[in-house]
Amino acid sequence: QTCALPICFPVTIHAVEALVASEAYKAKRAAEYPPYTDYLDGIVKGDTAQVQAYIDACNAIKNKYPKGAA
Question: The pTM is what?
Protein backbone atom coordinates (compact mmCIF):
# COMPACT_ATOMS: atom_id res chain seq x y z
CA GLN A 1 0.00 0.00 0.00
CA THR A 2 1.46 3.34 -1.06
CA CYS A 3 0.31 6.67 0.36
CA ALA A 4 1.26 10.23 -0.26
CA LEU A 5 -0.48 11.26 2.94
CA PRO A 6 0.71 10.69 6.48
CA ILE A 7 -2.43 8.63 7.18
CA CYS A 8 -3.47 5.83 4.82
CA PHE A 9 -6.84 4.16 4.58
CA PRO A 10 -8.01 1.39 2.28
CA VAL A 11 -10.21 2.41 -0.62
CA THR A 12 -12.04 -0.15 -2.70
CA ILE A 13 -13.09 0.25 -6.30
CA HIS A 14 -16.68 -0.30 -5.14
CA ALA A 15 -16.42 2.65 -2.77
CA VAL A 16 -15.06 4.86 -5.54
CA GLU A 17 -17.75 3.72 -7.99
CA ALA A 18 -20.44 4.39 -5.41
CA LEU A 19 -19.11 7.88 -4.78
CA VAL A 20 -18.88 8.67 -8.49
CA ALA A 21 -22.41 7.36 -9.08
CA SER A 22 -23.81 9.37 -6.17
CA GLU A 23 -22.29 12.58 -7.59
CA ALA A 24 -23.11 11.93 -11.27
CA TYR A 25 -26.31 13.97 -11.11
CA LYS A 26 -24.23 17.16 -10.87
CA ALA A 27 -22.58 16.72 -14.26
CA LYS A 28 -25.84 15.64 -15.88
CA ARG A 29 -27.64 18.69 -14.53
CA ALA A 30 -24.85 21.07 -15.53
CA ALA A 31 -24.92 19.76 -19.10
CA GLU A 32 -28.66 20.44 -19.46
CA TYR A 33 -29.30 23.58 -17.43
CA PRO A 34 -30.23 26.59 -19.56
CA PRO A 35 -27.60 29.34 -19.74
CA TYR A 36 -27.68 31.60 -16.67
CA THR A 37 -27.67 34.57 -19.05
CA ASP A 38 -31.32 33.76 -19.84
CA TYR A 39 -32.14 34.37 -16.19
CA LEU A 40 -30.08 37.55 -15.96
CA ASP A 41 -31.59 38.87 -19.18
CA GLY A 42 -35.07 38.39 -17.74
CA ILE A 43 -34.08 40.15 -14.51
CA VAL A 44 -32.58 43.13 -16.35
CA LYS A 45 -35.62 43.46 -18.61
CA GLY A 46 -38.06 42.94 -15.76
CA ASP A 47 -39.55 40.04 -17.72
CA THR A 48 -41.11 37.88 -15.03
CA ALA A 49 -42.30 35.32 -17.59
CA GLN A 50 -38.73 34.80 -18.83
CA VAL A 51 -37.43 34.48 -15.27
CA GLN A 52 -40.16 31.98 -14.42
CA ALA A 53 -39.44 29.99 -17.60
CA TYR A 54 -35.80 29.76 -16.54
CA ILE A 55 -36.74 28.61 -13.04
CA ASP A 56 -39.19 26.05 -14.46
CA ALA A 57 -36.53 24.70 -16.84
CA CYS A 58 -34.05 24.34 -13.97
CA ASN A 59 -36.62 22.58 -11.79
CA ALA A 60 -37.43 20.17 -14.63
CA ILE A 61 -33.73 19.27 -14.87
CA LYS A 62 -33.53 18.83 -11.09
CA ASN A 63 -36.50 16.46 -11.25
CA LYS A 64 -34.96 14.59 -14.19
CA TYR A 65 -31.68 14.10 -12.31
CA PRO A 66 -32.46 13.99 -8.57
CA LYS A 67 -29.66 14.08 -6.00
CA GLY A 68 -28.05 10.70 -5.45
CA ALA A 69 -29.61 9.06 -8.51
CA ALA A 70 -27.19 7.25 -10.80
Answer: 0.71
